[in-house]
Design goal:
single chain, 155 residues, 6-stranded mixed β-sheet, 4 helices
Length: 155
């Protein structure tokens, strides 16, 4: 996969059988999060089953990258909300996120509101200390359904 320019968002479906640690989802075929130190963000959107979308963010979510991330998540909410029945779920996997700034928190607040209006269940996977700490300090962990493992979030 070619390197993404700084701030680029590349939605890519997962393929193949997953090894352990991804909860039934294929591993991200793109760059390792540690290689995205230039401030890049890559987003993988997958659907492990009908009515469930997992949006995995890899890299940094900051003032530069948050607008693209917001667009991908809004599209997922529109798609899930347009389904015939309630019970759809959007899982925001932030496990590979290396930095979550105030702009990223703002996206999560708006996303929770959009999901509520669309009848979409939102789950956030905060599988690393950097993300968990920011969610706790901002008290968003009290307002969002936060899991530490993707398997629980997907359900």
């Amino acid at each position: 996969m070619p390197d993404s320019p700084s701030g680029a968002v590349s939605p890519t479906p997962a393929t193949g059988a997953p090894p352990g640690g991804h909860g039934g989802l294929a591993p991200w075929p793109g760059p390792d999060p540690a290689d995205l130190a230039d401030g890049s963000l890559v987003v993988s959107a997958t659907s492990p089953r009908a009515g469930v979308v997992v949006a995995r963010a890899i890299g940094e979510i900051d003032l530069l990258t948050a607008p693209g991330w917001r667009l991908v998540l809004a599209a997922a909410v529109r798609m899930l909300g347009s389904g015939a029945g309630r019970g759809s779920r959007l899982v925001c996997d932030l496990s590979p996120v290396t930095f979550l700034g105030a702009s990223g928190l703002d996206v999560l607040v708006d996303l929770a509101e959009q999901c509520g209006q669309a009848g979409v269940d939102l789950r956030v996977v905060a599988g690393n200390r950097r993300v968990t700490r920011v969610l706790r300090l901002s008290t968003l962990d009290r307002h969002l359904a936060v899991d530490d493992r993707i398997e629980r979030a997907v359900g």
